[in-house]
């Protein structure tokens, strides 16, 4: 039985005081039996959030990490540093990182290895561009990205990975994939994982949908047999909305 997981991706939003105020508002309310709630926040807010989350069921995640432990990589943050803070999750390979920071499938894979090396749970993003969707390449793109991300990852590690299927054309646009389309692609991604490992491993992996998920559509996605949660950008920024998203995943 896969536990539903709602992860907020704040992207480049919120100061430390804004993050603290948000957490005070969701504490207790976004803690719902049977649903895992995660907040993936900017690096600067992580120490305060990790501290605030102590004793709660809300997990804190980062939005990126470097694949090396340390070194001359100006501006980067490593898994060692995130683990040291008490961070539990890390988003890897978000389409914005792939598009604006030239993250290749190979880099994504190195980052997945780095996350496991430091006991962080990766949320690995895959998904197609609009032109790839229109060219009927959605499943091919997701297959290539998924297989690359899992390269060299053991079955014992694979079951811990959270995959986020995010069609790029649906991110921040208000144009969400239909729940049936998202289910179709996510079921396919699960079959790709089965091909890499086995049916039991694929059954255990949690796969989220992401792309214009809102409180009013989250339950529809989560109602699909293969959709185990959501990675949410815009609608995760307001406390009331984040609480509704977690409630909607029950
Ligand atoms: O990581 C989250 C996704 O990019 C979705 O963002 P959105 O919910 O604002 O469309």
Features:
single chain, 250 residues, alpha/beta, 8-stranded parallel β-barrel, 12 helices, 42% helix, globular, binds glyceraldehyde-3-phosphate
List the helices and strands and how they pair.
Blueprint: E1 5-9, H1 16-26, E2 36-40, H2 46-53, E3 59-62, H3 79-85, E4 89-92, H4 95-100, H5 105-117, E5 121-126, H6 130-134, H7 138-149, H8 155-158, E6 162-165, H9 179-196, H10 199-204, E7 206-210, H11 218-222, E8 229-232, H12 239-248
Parallel strand pairs: 1-2, 1-8, 2-3, 3-4, 4-5, 5-6, 6-7, 7-8
Helix pairs in contact: 1-2, 1-12, 5-7, 7-9
This protein binds glyceraldehyde-3-phosphate.
Glyceraldehyde-3-phosphate is lined by residues 9, 94, 166, 171-172, 210-213, 231-235.
Subcellular location: Cytoplasm
Main location: cytoplasm
Family: Belongs to the triosephosphate isomerase family.
Describe this structure in words.
One of its GO terms (molecular function) is triose-phosphate isomerase activity. This protein is 42% helix and 15% strand. It has helices at residues 16-26, 46-53, 79-85, 95-100, 105-117, 130-134, 138-149, 155-158, 179-196, 199-204, 218-222, 239-248, and strands at residues 5-9, 36-40, 59-62, 89-92, 121-126, 162-165, 206-210, 229-232. The protein starts with a strand and ends with a helix. The model has no long low-confidence stretch (mean pLDDT 97). It has an 8-stranded parallel barrel with strand order 1-2-3-4-5-6-7-8, surrounded by 5 helices. The chain has 12 helices and 8 strands. With 250 residues, the protein is an alpha/beta fold. The structure holds glyceraldehyde-3-phosphate. Glyceraldehyde-3-phosphate binds at residues 9, 94, 166, 171-172, 210-213, 231-235.
């Amino acid at each position: 039985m896969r536990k539903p997981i709602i992860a907020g991706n704040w992207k480049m939003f919120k100061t430390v005081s804004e993050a603290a105020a948000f957490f005070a508002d969701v504490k207790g309310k976004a803690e719902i039996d049977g649903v895992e709630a995660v907040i993936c926040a900017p690096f600067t807010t992580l120490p305060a959030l990790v501290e605030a989350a102590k004793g709660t069921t809300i997990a804190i995640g980062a939005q990126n990490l470097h694949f090396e432990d340390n070194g001359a990589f100006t501006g980067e943050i490593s898994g060692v540093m995130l683990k040291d803070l008490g961070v539990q999750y890390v988003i890897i390979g978000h389409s914005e990182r792939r598009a604006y920071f030239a993250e290749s499938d190979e880099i994504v894979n190195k980052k997945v290895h780095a996350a496991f090396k430091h006991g962080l749970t990766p949320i690995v993003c895959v998904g197609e561009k609009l032109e790839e969707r229109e060219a009927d390449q959605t499943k091919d793109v997701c297959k290539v990205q998924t297989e690359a991300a899992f390269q060299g990852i053991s079955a014992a590690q694979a079951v811990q990975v959270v995959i986020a299927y995010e069609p790029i054309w649906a991110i921040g646009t208000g144009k969400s994939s239909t729940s049936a389309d998202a289910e179709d692609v996510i079921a396919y991604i699960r079959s790709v994982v089965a091909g890499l490992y086995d049916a039991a491993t694929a059954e255990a992996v949690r796969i989220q949908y992401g792309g214009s998920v809102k409180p009013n559509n989250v339950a529809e996605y989560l109602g699909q047999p293969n959709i185990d949660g959501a990675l949410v950008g815009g609608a995760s920024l307001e406390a009331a909305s984040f609480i509704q998203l977690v409630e909607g995943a029950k």
